Amino acid sequence: MKNLLSISDLDRADLEGILDLAASFAEVQSRDIPKVPALRGKTVVLAFFEDSTRTRTSFDLAARRLSADVVNFSVASSATRKGESLRDTVETISAMGVDAIVVRHGSSGAPHRIARWTDAAVVNAGDGWHQHPTQALLDCFTICNKLGGLDGRKVAICGDIQHSRVARSNVEAFTKLGAEVVLIGPRTMLPPSLDGWPVKVEPDLDAVLPDIDVAYFLRIQQERLSEGLFPSIREYRVRYGLTTERAARLRPDALVMHPGPMNRGVEIDPEVAADPRAVVLEQVAAGVPVRMAVLYGLVGPGRFDPQDTEPQRQGVA
User: Fold this and answer.
1) Is 54 assigned a catalytic role?
2) Which of 121, 124, 195, 218 can pair with 159 through a Cys bridge, CB separation 3.0 to 4.6 Å?
3) Rg of the chain (C-alpha set)
């Protein structure tokens, strides 16, 4: 695999391989010095054309813990402010001899275009409404750690499905790993067509709560209110928010998940976010070993040995 642009690039064996490798890197993270020389001499560029906290920071930490050199590309201080095209920006970065470019962009398909303009490995860190593959991977990792796997599990994804790159990636990843997925949300927030989506649709959140293993809630963006996609925040919470009353109907071992940032009191009540079944912070923590696995898989030298903690002496007799 040269790039990671979409969950569609991966089959079940690929997903399981990344998750297994991430488990090795999670063990590395527990050490006093959570660093290995696996990508020593490699350069990773973080090119984020959209704001990000969790994804950018975890990719930065992932690359550094693999001993890679990290360059944070700042759009605000770059030549793109002077009108430089995306292609010229990418080709300029690539000409400096980098090994991987991690891209977040507001336009769907931008990472696919970038992959045609560079020989570096390209990782999609979120593009428009299209895909967010590493979010799906870290969500799978979290569920597998907590429940032992996704085979036979029932996952409900609730919220603004139409505008969510997380939902698209997660549906693919969860179903490839054997889960049944049900989508819940206002009709105005579902895609116009679900042809090809291996999912069920349920209009009533309360109807599925007692039967699901994972309740996954998506962030509601305030701009959707001005678009008339739902009447009010209050009404959305009443129909689709995980209130304390609804959480009481979940099974004792069910997981509550959210990709962040969370609107507390809208998608999930604050009391529910503090419930032991809520694994939002575990999702954040999983981002580092999962993104270590992705970067290593794309530009690493081969099979990873977790015991290899000594600096590599390349080119030394």
Assistant:
1) yes
2) 218
3) 20
Helices (H), the chain: 12-29, 54-65, 86-95, 110-116, 133-147, 165-176, 205-208, 223-226, 233-240, 244-247, 270-273, 280-299
Q: Which of 55, 89, 134, 142 is catalytic?
A: 55
Q: What are phi and psi of 286, to 5 degrees?
A: -65, -20
Mean pLDDT per block of 10 residues along the chain (317 residues) reads 94 97 94 94 96 95 98 71 81 96 96 97 96 98 98 97 96 98 94 92 96 96 65 90 97 97 95 97 98 97 67 32
234-260 pLDDT per residue, tens: 999 999 999 999 999 999 999 999 999
Structure tokens, 66:
């693999």
Whether the domain at 7-132+287-299 and the domain at 133-282 fall into the same CATH topology: yes
The residue annotated as part of the active site, out of 40, 54, 200, 224, is 54
277 an active-site residue? no
Query: Which pTM does this prediction carry?
Result: 0.92
Catalytically annotated residue among 43, 65, 89, 104: 104
DSSP tag of 34: -
Parallel, antiparallel or unpaired: strands 43-48 and 69-73: parallel
In whole angstroms, give the CA distance from residue 87 to residue 46: 16
Superfamily of domain 7-132+287-299: Aspartate/ornithine carbamoyltransferase (3.40.50.1370)
Provide the residue ranges of all domains of the chain, joining segments of one domain with +: 7-132+287-299, 133-282
Instruction: Express each pLDDT in 22-48 by its tens digit.
Output: 999 999 988 999 999 999 999 999 999
**CA gap 165, 127 in Å, rounded:** 7
Question: In this structure, are residues 5 and 165 in contact, taking their beta carbons and an 8 Å threshold?
Answer: no
Do 100 and 42 meet the contact criterion of CB atoms below 8 Å apart? yes
Six-digit token string for 114 = 């970038």
133-282 CATH: 3.40.50.1370
- Is 92 considered catalytic here? no
DSSP letter string, 51-106: --SHHHHHHHHHHHHTT-EEEEE-GGGSGGGGT--HHHHHHHHHHT--SEEEEEES
